[in-house]
Amino acid sequence: MLCRAACSRSGCVCCLSSTSRKLVPGLGALGSRRKHSLPDLPYDYGALEPHINAQIMQLHHSKHHAAYVNNLNIAEEKYREALEKGDVTAQVALQPAMKFNGGGHINHSIFWTNLSPNGGGEPAGELLEAIKHDFGSFKNFKEKLTAVSVGVQGSGWGWLGFSKEQGRLQIAACSNQDPLQGTTGLIPLLGIDVWEHAYYLQYKNVRPDYLKAIWNVISWENVAARYMACKK
């Protein structure tokens, strides 16, 4: 279920391949599953400076991501109760909360591993060759993903994903916390958070400056591992 080559945390939601096009995965197992928890970062809050400062990272991880986790657990508990009661109306009413908070948890769990203090530069190997094949060059890919991310209206994410159906890389944007795979079917490889809480304290409302900086901390090793795992 997980892309183990990209994430070694047991129970992590950073690559839920079985969520494809499903609004809420595993609802039938809600009564027996463990609660979600906030994953640890693989680096210190200040490790991505000067590109993303420690204050942003601390608030983003310990407050925003934590809130998605807590609210997802609350929504799932309410859903379990609604299932036990056979209350379909309540089940339907809880879908938006589960999609929003579940998506927030999935998206951020990917995002943290996509970043690294040793990141930046360009990918190598099969991932680079795939980027060149599907976008013409790494430069074209970088410009296209940046443009898509800048163009997200309000809050959302810019993504590099892999289409198993077409066997190629694709770029997509998702609104709010919509999870890439659950809404488009693309397997997430690289996500760029363009909610203002991801950059405002450092870059104010100048999203393009944040997007220019974030390329310096992209972990191509992690993205490549996700790509190779999803091709199996």
From TrEMBL:
Keywords: Manganese, Metal-binding, Mitochondrion, Nitration, Oxidoreductase. GO terms for cellular component: mitochondrial matrix. InterPro entries: Fe/Mn_Superoxide_Dismutase, Mn/Fe_SOD, Mn/Fe_SOD_BS, Mn/Fe_SOD_C, Mn/Fe_SOD_N, Mn/Fe_SOD_N_sf, SOD_C_sf. GO terms for molecular function: identical protein binding; manganese ion binding; superoxide dismutase activity. It is found in: Mitochondrion matrix. Destroys radicals which are normally produced within the cells and which are toxic to biological systems. Homotetramer. This is Superoxide dismutase. It comes from Phocoena sinus.
